[in-house]
Amino acid sequence: MTKVLLVIGGILNSPFFLLHRVLSYQIHNLTQLAAGYRGLLQALNVGGVLFIFFFAFVSFFCQKELMGSRLGRVVLLLVSALFLSRAAEEFFLFQFSPVILVSCTLTGLIYVALLVIASRKRHSGEFAGTTATTEEREPELVGHL
């Protein structure tokens, strides 16, 4: 189930990646916008493109690390926060689009489910030997993921 959710998450990130690549071209052609603002939008969009590409890449090719390490759980948290916040922003910042709302909510919830699965597996010890030996395991910290 975990691998299926990760692949679905990677697949859902791919159209977002392509959409933001197209947005780069559209932002470049916004002539009525001051050059400084256009540059700022381009810079933010490039960052978004890189993040979304990273999310898709790790969902496809770094599944064990994503599900079995503290860094992986933080990435899962970041992905879910990004998409769920974007879904909420649809009500306040943009002209409402049900397609964006549903796709961002679905993607965010998939990564929330993966975070829950990874956290439960970590506490049950299922991933104990996948990323580190007994001497190299993560230290126990209060309140960490």
Quick structural overview:
The protein has 145 residues and is an all-alpha fold.
Write the topology of this structure.
Blueprint: H1 2-28, H2 35-61, H3 63-68, H4 70-92, H5 98-124
Helix pairs in contact: 1-2, 1-5, 4-5
Structure description:
With 145 residues, the chain is mostly helical. It has one domain. The protein is 76% helix and 0% strand. It has helices at 2-28, 35-61, 63-68, 70-92, 98-124.
Low-confidence runs? 128-135
Enumerate how many helices there are, as a single number.
5
Beta strand count: 0
Quote the average pLDDT. Answer: 88
The H/E string reads HHHHH
Rg from Cα: 18 Å
Oligomer: single chain
- By helix and strand content, what is the structural category? mainly alpha
Major β-sheet profile: none
Query: Which shape, going by the Cα principal axes?
Result: elongated
Relative strand content: under 5%
Tell me the domain tally: 1
Q: Percent of residues in helical segments? A: over 70%
* Separation, N- and C-terminal Cα atoms: 21 Å
Sum up the structure in keywords.
145 residues, mainly alpha, elongated
